[in-house]
Amino acid sequence: MHEFRGMLYKSMEDPHLDLAELENIVRLLLELEPETDPVWHYLNIQNGRIHGLFEKCTVDHEVRMEILQNKRHEKVLSDSKWRQLQQESNKSLEVDSAIGDSFQDDQLSSTFMAEEADSLRATYIRRLSAVLIQHVPAFWRLALSVFSGKFAKAAAGNALADSEMNAKSGANKTDDKGAEAKYTNHSLDEVASMVCATVSVFDTKVQNTFRDFEECNILRPFMGDTIKEIAKACQTLEGKDSSPTAGIVSAIF
């Protein structure tokens, strides 16, 4: 029995698990008298997955930045060796000219590296925004379905169309309250706090990255694109049933 219960909990980790399958798993677990709340366990798994996706974006970004830093370091060493060879092989007048040219080359190289670094930062913010847009509203809607009773109805009558659901909403109001009590002992406010904490992680990562942008690149096209991505994320959170409250957007910038 213990192994079967463990298998059911493990099946909740499937990222492709649909609502009807989740409902059936929760019902089985409740019949087995689980030690932990199955629905809350699943919500924590989903929230943890979002955090994991944020962290993957961060790790990937750090790796790319490290590769760029190594490239920059190698170029500095290469340029230094080249200048040394020039100084040893050229006459005094030619050396002065070479030094002037190399200084200009260094400036161009530094500007290019700064642009490339900021381009990577813009890509990082775009990926973070994509994670938030794709997963946070879906997570919140799942929570709403659990605490409104739609979660229970999704499995019991998965073939019902939206129109049929709306027609029966008044008749099932009492059942909805019962479903809420049955499927979890936690509250929607607890999930709202969870979502706010997740958005706060996004906010912190984005703001820290913005502070790293080079001032010389502030008007580059990718800066405007980055701001548009963040605006899109905010608009998504303001959508119907997309986050606990539209006020959550005020936390971003």
Automatic annotation (TrEMBL):
Task: Keywords in alphabetical order, please.
Answer: Exocytosis, Protein transport, Transport
- Top-rank taxon of the source lineage equals Eukaryota
Gene Ontology CC: exocyst
Identify the residues that the record assigns to the Exocyst complex component EXOC2/Sec5 N-terminal domain, covering every copy: 1-211
Q: Which GO terms describe its biological process?
A: exocytosis; Golgi to plasma membrane transport; protein transport
Pfam families linked to this entry: Sec5
Read off the PANTHER family from this record. Answer: EXOCYST COMPLEX COMPONENT 2 (PTHR13043:SF1), EXOCYST COMPLEX COMPONENT SEC5 (PTHR13043)
Q: How does it assemble?
A: Component of the exocyst complex.
Family from the record: Belongs to the SEC5 family.
> What is the role of the protein in this entry?
Component of the exocyst complex involved in the docking of exocytic vesicles with fusion sites on the plasma membrane.
Mind telling me what this protein is named?
A: Exocyst complex component SEC5
